[in-house]
Specification:
115 residues, mainly alpha, 57% helix
């Protein structure tokens, strides 16, 4: 789907090779060799689409989290995992700069009120 409809994706969530292979074997879907080949194909597709200008590299996020964890509120460590924060915002259609600005403004407001 990614090869044929790359322009239709506003975010691509990828996982590292080790995590991909481990999860695939855990599901008993494939052996290590076939899992590695499958993952290499995915990574090669993403790389070629970036080089061809079909997708932007900043639309590709690599994480070890499950999609459910990304979509649920309160499951990402925003302070130490800025890429996850950006991914969370992109998936939800939020502007990370606006959220940060709002959070800073709220902290400043609370600091003024607390004296």
């Amino acid at each position: 789907m990614l090869k044929k409809f790359a322009k239709d994706f506003n975010v691509i969530i990828n996982i590292d090779e080790k995590t991909f292979i481990d999860r695939n074997i855990k599901r008993k879907a494939n052996n290590r060799k076939n899992s590695k080949l499958w993952k290499e194909g995915i990574d090669n597709t993403i790389e070629s689409l970036i080089k061809e200008g079909e997708i932007n590299d900043y639309d590709v996020f690599t994480t070890d989290k499950y999609l459910e964890d990304i979509l649920l509120d309160g499951t990402l460590d925003y302070d130490s995992d800025f890429e996850s924060f950006n991914l969370y915002c992109k998936v939800r259609g939020l502007n990370p700069e606006e959220l940060i600005h709002e959070a800073v403004a709220e902290q400043q407001k609370q600091a003024r009120e607390n004296g």
